[in-house]
Structures
1.
Amino acid sequence: MQRIKYLIAGGDMRSFYLAESLKNEYHMVEIFGFDKKLPKCKNKNLTQITGDADVIVCGIPLLTAGGFLNMPFSEESLHVSTFIGIMPENAVFFAGKIEKDVREKLEDKNITYIDLLDREEMAVLNAIPAAEGAVELIIRSTPRTIHNSRILILGYGRIGKVLANILKGFGADVWVGARKYSDLSWIEVNGYRPVHTRNLERYVSDMNVIVNTIPSRIITADILNKLRPDCYLLDLASRPGGIDFEHAEKLGMKVDWALSLPGKVAPLTAADIIKKTIDNVLQEGVGKG
């Protein structure tokens, strides 16, 4: 097995478990950005530990507001431009949700990068902990069982497919909203109730739970006004989300926007998925994302 030097810079507990897994395979691993969570992991000189790294892995998502690396467990802050400035050109860079301007900076320095969220195997496997986390939130946030609850899932992508299957196993009455007629056909074939997204207003008043996976405003004020007061709303979509949160708050509705669920509910499994994806990329040869 080729011994690789990794730098894990920031991220949540997925990144920490990833580092531990890589160490167990006898790779050289440095971590940066966990000093607040793990006092024994004091940050070393970043320029020194970055300079000879073969593979650099940052968080999912890569950035927080203002262009700083996502480092929730660190007292330090680090701007992405500063970090790119000290990266070696021969390193391979992995992160999630790499913004266009960051990609351009990486390309200007001729750094090979891979957005983990662009990898299909990562997205498919990541849907499992995301869906399980959604089920946990539904159980915790509703006064009734999932069994016999009427649940509407908006979007029939990877998470929508996995979540619909799990909820059906619990005995829920599963409805799935989609825009494409091909998706609506598959929804029907798989035993769920199909709803075209343009017809949502006809059905939402009967739902006990609505889960959104579509990253655009689909649950508008007009839709919210038609919901039953005890309907639980769960948004799994990335920013900007799909719910008019301000109006939902005015109505006093129970609503959660659950971002990065895999890292919160199953960080060890999520780390294994990230590692598998990185291994695949390195084994198949690396190209720019």
2.
Amino acid sequence: MEGTFINLTEENLADEHLCCIIRSRVVHPGVEAKRQWLAQRLKEGHVFRKLDAKGTVFIEYAPLETAWVPVVGENYDYLYCLWVIGPHRGKGYGRALMEYCLSDARKRGRSGVCMLGARKQKSWLSDQAFAKGFDFEVVDATASGYELLALSFDGTAPAFAPSAKRERIESEELTVYYDMQCPYVARSVERVEGYCRENGIPVSLVQVDSLQKAKELPCAFNNWAVFYKGEFQTVNLLDTAQLQRMCSR
């Protein structure tokens, strides 16, 4: 396997390529929002490890206690993202990144690592079949089909927070919960807002801006979650066609 990996730190964050998005030299609002979000999370033990190149090869994980997701458990790490895309595939980078994450968790005396999945693989979620190859197993699930996968080192298991099983809100209008962990979110928020404005569709865009808000969310969440007519729809970012289909129902 060629290539070397580096971890983002408070010292190099401003200069390193955030390899999950944007190859352009033009400043991108999502990237800058991601940098600001990471600047706080790195202090909490958040890890962003990447190939030392301008490519999409990276893993992102954090102690579950400080991970912005409605998942609870003792002494676990939460894996937000693991991506290897384009010409970098097939070189063993994904395996190397996962092995680093698991080794790091064991060295720190953690009880295991968990991640969000689904009965059927969803866009914007890391490859759960790949994770199951490392013996991740389903330890909890929601009625809508989202699953919590975990690799336990000591026989314990994390779980979705009770609120995440609710999957309903009182508001009937299109409602999107989001945080700035993913740099694609900023443009997705703009897209939803613009579509709803042009089509006269009421919408609530709710920024999840604290750990407490994230832990109390009424659905599965990795950095984005959508409700419509009071019911949970998806953790997928929405394009215009998806918005049109959803709002025409």
